[in-house]
Amino acid sequence: MFSRRLLFIAICILVITDTLKAQKIVYSEPDKDDSRRMVFEIIGKIDGNFLIYKNLKGKNWITIYDNDMKEVSKIGQEFMPDERLVSVDFFSYTDFFYAIYQYQKKNVVHCMAAKIDGKGKKISELLELDTTHIGFSANDKIYSVITSEDKSKIMVFKINSKNKENYVITTNLFNDSLQLIKRSVIHMPMDDRNDYLDEFYVDNDGDFVFAKFYRQNSDVISRAALAIKFVQADSLFLYDLNIEKRYLDEVHLKVDNIRKRYFLTSFYYKERRGNIDGFYYYIWDKTNRKPEMENSVTFGDELRRDAKGDANLKMAFNDYFIRNIIVKKDGGFIIGSEAFYTTSRYNTWNRWDYLYGSPFYSPYDYYAYSPYYNSLWYRSRYYNSQNVRYHADNIVIFSFDKNGNLMWNNVISKDQFDDDTDDLISYQLMNTGGQLHFLFNMEERRTNLLNDYTIEPGGKISRNPTLHNLDKGFEFMAKYGKQVSARQMIIPCLYRNTVCFAKIEFN
After folding, report:
1. N or C: which end of the chain has fewer CB within 10 A?
2. Domain-wise residue ranges, the chain
3. How many C-beta atoms surround the C-beta of residue 72 within 10 A?
4. What contacts 24+ positions apart, CB below 8 Å, involve 457-466?
5. pLDDT 10s digits, 445-490
6. CB-CB contact of 84 with 104 (8 Å)
7. Element holding 39 (H helix, E strand)
8. 307-319 pLDDT tens trace
9. pTM of the model
């Protein structure tokens, strides 16, 4: 009997120890140059090290961290101009990455590329990808750069919207060696000042896809189409959606490269400025060049009751925005959404106060159109003086099978808020294959602690034990985190008035 008790205690100790080690966190040392106003971008994991781009007061450098987040070196990127640098995008591979940046010199905007190794050193001559002549000083992006899921294709494109009735789309498709595959100049008729383009992707074949839609009186979407430029084509193919008597909120696209399909989804309303009624989705089969399915799912009262928070039942989803679309191996898909709103002494924010929907996208104002860039480069991370409180509440996850049927839905309950900035609220998703991890801050005993909720393929949600090594003083900006390997994520943190970085390892 005594030996059995010892065995039981030993097993419990092993289980607890293994649980504590399931997620390990290590932090970089705060650097005096890494002020809160610094612009940064997590590049990725290259040659076993973690590389982060930083920009402050016109200076550009890359900091290399080892596996313990100890600084290995800090390499200045002198080839980037100190002034008139408009933007920079990073595309990482196993042993190098591309920095594709644009800057203005006199009346010409240059789009350039540099190949850089895991030590932060430039290993190729600078390559000019494209230029644009303009007649004024531009602080906004002229070019947008996107990559395919397998990183075999890189698309550099711009959209000239000077003529509101006829946009000129210029695309440059490159392979992963930055050799030009195809350049196209396409004229797209725009029927009305309320026509918009958004959600741009390039798939693994090099086909360019995006959404075109009409916002009735600048709010709801009453017409929409899927636009595709096939890799060798010099024209666009438009496929109209059958919205019927529904109104869409904001269009989201996702490429399914395995089955060669495109997913398009949106919340929908039955009436203008009404309450959100459910999801609309459209799936297009690229092989057969026709819609595979088109349907809508209405939210039931039980789900509304779980999701509503402080809202009434009919208004339960009015503060929700789509945050994630994940394609499953069996052809199904998962949609993640989050409640987001603001309050102030003057008024309460609602989704209509943001011109076209989601607060997770930066607004755009273009000479030559650039879509949102999911980076701190274009996000205002500085405090404002409007006494605004930002809120990010419950997360609702939906799982659909390959035929578009809703299999399950579940809710992760949370209540986050912060004043004047939304840096520390919202969540980041970590996909480890068998589970989805939702990482976000929650206040416990007046301290923000990073929480880890997991959801399994069947929809079961579990709250993992508090992450090990959550040092006091580090505040996680989870929404800006980036998954850098199958089981590792880098999340920026605030420590006093500096920015540092935490590596979370999921064992």
Report:
1. N
2. 1-30+427-507, 200-235+242-422
3. 15
4. 458/408, 459/397, 459/399, 459/407, 459/408, 459/409, 459/410, 460/410, 461/410, 461/412, 464/22, 464/23, 465/19, 465/20, 465/22
5. 778 889 999 999 999 999 998 776 777 789 999 999 999 999 999 9
6. yes
7. strand 39-46
8. 987 778 999 999 9
9. 0.89
